[in-house]
Amino acid sequence: MRILHAIDLLAGRAAAALTSVYRFVYSSRMPCVCLYAPSCSEYAELAWRRFGLAGGMQLVVSRIRRCDGGTWRGVDLPPEIQ
């Protein structure tokens, strides 16, 4: 079980690194139209670093589903590890 957890965390860090590349290459050239702070890509990077690939992916999908152009705006950070 510890090995699977370690692999999940490693995969999460790899996903976070790829997200950083995306933000540098693509997102930095686009105008910011985000409803939330941090942006979805920054949120994904934080979630994957904190919770690994599987746990972070659940948070990321939930966040993207909330980003529907509704009226709520503001700070929306991934939860802290307990």
Strands, helices and their partners?
Layout: H1 2-25, E1 36-37, H2 40-66, E2 74-75
Parallel strand pairs: 1-2
What does this structure look like?
With 82 residues, the protein is mainly alpha-helical. The protein has one domain. Helix content is 62%, strand content 5%. The chain has helices spanning 2-25, 40-66, and strands at 36-37, 74-75. A two-stranded parallel sheet has the order 1-2. Helix 1 (2-25) crosses helix 2 (40-66). The protein is globular and about 40 Å long.
Residue share in helices? 55-70%
From the alpha-carbon coordinates, what is the Rg to the nearest angstrom? 13 Å
Number of domains: 1
Contiguous low-pLDDT stretches (5 residues minimum) are: none
Number of strands: 2
What structural category characterises the helix and strand content? Answer: mainly alpha
SSE string, helix = H, strand = E? HEHE
Mean pLDDT: 88
What is the CA–CA distance across the termini?
19 Å
Work out the strand percent.
under 5%
Number of helices: 2
Largest sheet: 2 strands, parallel
Oligomer: single chain
Instruction: Based on Cα principal axes, name the global outline.
Output: globular
Strand order of the largest sheet: 1-2
